[in-house]
Amino acid sequence: QVQLAESGGGLVQAGGSLRLSCAASGIIFSNNGMAWHRQAPGKPREWVATVTRGAITAYADSVKGRFTISRDNAKSAVYLQMNSLKPEDTAVYYCNALGYSHWGQGTQVTVSS
Question: Which of 47, 91, 88 is nearest to 69 (CA)?
């Protein structure tokens, strides 16, 4: 059974940084691409970033240059380093294993202006 557990969210002022973590189980982690998504109140869930099993990364234009996705196969974990945060980054952040429909509980990120 695929399980994803996000952590690391919180309240931060604009311009600040946070590092999100996602622990995955129930999959062969090193064989899977991983992604971060987010959902702001009243808006649909949107893709934020992807890291392939070969550690190739891709980002949404809205976060490019500010966010960095990385993975640690030994820990079955994926991370999202978020710098220069903006109020519009406020959302619940979720990780996802590519090819799977499972989602964790998410972690709330709130950026105050």
Answer: 47
User: CA separation (Å) from 97 to 8, 42, 65, 69, 105?
Assistant: 18, 24, 23, 14, 14
pLDDT in tens, 11-36: 999 999 999 999 999 999 999 999 99
Beta bridge partners of 59: 49
Q: 8-47: buried (b, 16+ CB within 10 Å) or exposed (e) per residue?
A: bbeebeeeeebebbbbbeebebeebbbbbbbeeeeeeeee
Residue type, 2: V
Show the tokens assigned to 91: 């959302």
Closest CA to 3 of 86, 105, 88: 105
